[in-house]
Amino acid sequence: MQEEIIISGFGGQGALFSGQLLAFAAMDSGFHVTWIPSYGPEMRGGKARCTVVISDQEIGSPLVRRPSAAIVLNIPSMEAFEPAVKPGGVLVVNSSLVPQRSERTDIRVFHIPASDIATELGNIRLANVVCLGTLVQAIGVVPLEAVEQALDNHLPERHRKLLGANKAALRRGAALVGG
Amino acid sequence: MMGDVACAEGALAAGCRFFAGYPITPSTETAEHMAARLPEVGGFYVQMEDELGSIAAVLGASWGGLKAMTATSGPGFSLMQENIGLGIMTETPCVIVNVQRAGPSTGLPTMVGQGDMQQARWGSHGPYEIIALCPWSVQECFDLTVRAFNLSERYRLPVLVMTDAEVGHMIEKLVIPPAEEIELWERQRPTLPPGQFPTYQAEAGRLVPPMPELGQGYHVSVTGLTHDERGYPDMSAEAQEALVRRIIAKVQENVADILDWQERDVDDADVVVVAYGITARVASHAVREARAGGIRAGLFRLITAWPFPEARVRDLARQGKRFVVPEINYGQMSREVERCVGIETPVLLVPHAGGDIHESGEILGAIRTLVSR
Description:
The complex is a heterodimer of chains A (about 180) and B (about 375).
Chain A: E1 2-10, H1 15-28, E2 32-39, E3 47-55, E4 69-72, H2 75-81, E5 90-94, E6 108-112, H3 114-120, H4 127-139, H5 144-154, H6 163-175
Helix pairs in contact in A: 1-4, 1-5, 3-4, 4-6, 5-6
Chain B: H1 3-13, E1 16-21, H2 28-37, E2 44-47, H3 51-63, E3 67-72, H4 74-89, E4 94-102, E5 108-112, H5 117-122, E6 131-133, H6 138-155, E7 158-164, H7 165-169, H8 237-252, H9 255-258, E8 261-264, E9 271-275, H10 277-292, E10 297-302, E11 304-306, H11 310-318, E12 322-327, H12 333-341, E13 347-351, H13 360-372
Parallel strand pairs in B: 1-2, 1-3, 3-4, 4-7, 6-7, 9-10, 9-12, 12-13
Antiparallel strand pairs in B: 4-5, 6-11, 8-10
């Protein structure tokens, strides 16, 4: 078993952090895990993405060209990674910011208004966690509870007051995955 | 934990209590973590004005009796070269972590490279030996930083931890052993009292002199000039020969203690992939794919790049094996492989200019090319 997940967006959208949550959750569930970031020299904005590999064996390359699942938080990420997802894989699209729809039929695509849901929950910056909830539910490798545990353990002190909202965002995202 | 942070924790576990640095991507997390952690353990963190000052302060702290380190990346590593030579000449234990990024010059500041491997060996002027270690995982960032301190203390020289932007920024599981299970080597201190001990007098039959500590009453003379056993400048070819020969011998005559590498599926292999750092991760995958396709391939992973495990590589070449060397540069350690195996043995470089890592297919392709040749 090996899942390779790319989470991509603008710097500040939480792509790197949501990937860390997934990595910690998988590590605590007993898997081999790598998390690796990719970003430019900008302090704000710019492209930011991370690759998370979850495996039941030792992981070779921590970077992949063709992920088995992806979260795209903005239009440039959609253009880069929608075509890259492996057949049979999962694509989660933040449809609040990405108007185009994937026409691929060989993967499972979830167009979810993550930024709108996040705003509804009180903070637009929760959009990353809404998407993570959808992805985790869709790929089913780690239980949602493990991600909640990762939030408990790793949410930075300054964002502690948002712990409940983060968990709510995770659940809302997960609930969008039918049956 | 992140690789860069694991280097910092490894340093602390090894007893490092001084860090001077000029933070630079992709090594910044090491400095950041040391800034937070050193005051907690009674150590010192100094934010310096540049990399020249950083390495100078590290050498000074080591003579002051502390285990000391800095962390940098390509451009900063270039700036440190002169004082790395000073550390060699004055036999000053310290550790330098170089989280390699893509160059030349500013290059791709946030992205991976492995282009400093020969600079690590020859970057400072004059004849010398160096020790350079190459972690390929977060666990090894910790373990090899501990080992770097141990080697620097035992052999009294700057030891380089040559990681890269991918290993440095990668988060993986790290197991930190209990402190009592971590073996630590400490520099030998003089047994003669102050006034009787010359600064650089090795005991009979030994190559590494005991190191006095400033402020303990010893008359300590430290200079980058060629010097005698008292540490006094001696401007003669004879003094130069004696000093440089000993500085080189203390590494060359102890390679058995220093050398480290890992072999996977090498014994029956027709093609051996020699790799290090993040590239060895990709290579391990390529070797697995080759085996799955019926090709007898193996992985020879450099853990010490310098000194280079040349006797073992020669031995493998004598057995008729062929070599593939993928690295994120245009041929650096591949030259060392070529030097060792001789002109008859095929060595195929798989170069990459940096900014990304190899695809395993590129390495697999090179393995196939060599098999069919």
